[in-house]
Amino acid sequence: MTVYYSISAPAKLNLNLFVKDKSESGLHFLESDICFLELFDEIYLKFSQNDTFYQNKENSFLIDPKKNLILQAINQFRFYTNWDKKFEIYLDKNIPIGSGLGGGSADAAATLVLLRTLFNKDKKNNKIPISKILQIGSELGSDVPSCIISKDLRLSGYGKEIKRKKFPSNYYFLIIYPNVELSTKSVFQHYSDFKNLNYKSKKMFFENVIIHNSLLLSATSLAPKIKDVLVNLKKIPNIVAYGMTGSGSTCFGIIKSLKDIPNLVKFFNNKYFIWFGQKADFNLNRVSFSKVLEIKF
């Protein structure tokens, strides 16, 4: 029996994403309403003599064991705290890679939350505030601070301007990843080719939240399967709204009742990654002391 500290790293869903003008630094200003799903990676840490990284090989989504945001988060945390602890790291990855669901950022964010908990337990007279890990997170990626908070949020600027929001919770989300990994950098590079096109579509709302994604045409040009998914989502009876999250390629549908799920899933014939469930707000105290009986390295 191996004992670990563990934490969940929930997937981020962009209900909308508005890309604004570039700044002098070349970065785009963004506005986005986001929520977090009950689809999450699970990260396990235990103190060790050296840093070692393992993954659940039964999952189809595997990251680079030597270069990833979990290890970067640990190294950045050490740099700012001079805490010299080493860890055995185990990742159970359920969020598709390069899917627009923020899996890498979620992993980095959850790692920082877990490290802060362990550090504050060890250094009771020198505790680290949340503001510090938000600062560290912002250096790892623009999505990391929001993933640290992991609640309904409104983002603006470069993702660092974060406001608390509250979106309806009595709905279900169907997540469809068409097995196409997209580079966020590539999608933004192609965005300039499409930003002036007059893309006409009927406005959709999730109650009072507009569903829109400025990167849709760019992402679809790189991954035509996105259009096929959206076309099929449009056909589904009783669907409230549908769209693409982040820089793609994952699409989502919002429904009111689980009884509609069979009708939804049948359109996709199990050829894509499919998940359905609800959104949730996640707490910073979600670290648990886990007894993991069977870990397959």
Structural notes for this entry:
The chain is α+β, with helices and mostly antiparallel strands and 297 residues long. It has two domains: 2-164 and 281-292, 2-Layer Sandwich (Ribosomal Protein S5, domain 2), CATH 3.30.230.10; 172-277, 2-Layer Sandwich (Alpha-Beta Plaits). It contains eight helices and 14 strands. The strands form two sheets. Strands 1, 2, 3, 4, 5, 6, 7, 9, 10 and 14 form a ten-stranded mixed β-sheet that branches. Helix 1 (69-81) runs parallel beside helix 2 (103-122), helix 1 (69-81) crosses helix 3 and helix 5 crosses helix 6. The longest helix has 20 residues, at 103-122. The two termini are 14 Å apart. The relative contact order is 0.20. The model has no long low-confidence stretch (mean pLDDT 90).
Short description:
With about 300 residues, the chain is of the alpha+beta class. It has helices at about 70-80, 105-120, 130-140, 145-150, 185-195, 215-220, 225-235, 260-265; strands at about 1-15, 15-20, 30-50, 50-55, 85-90, 155, 160-165, 170-175, 205, 210-215, 240-245, 250-255, 275, 290.
Instruction: Examine the secondary-structure arrangement and name the CATH architecture of the largest domain.
Output: 2-Layer Sandwich
Q: At the third CATH level, what is the topology name of the largest domain?
A: Ribosomal Protein S5, domain 2
Structural class: alpha+beta
**CATH C-level category of the largest domain:** Alpha Beta
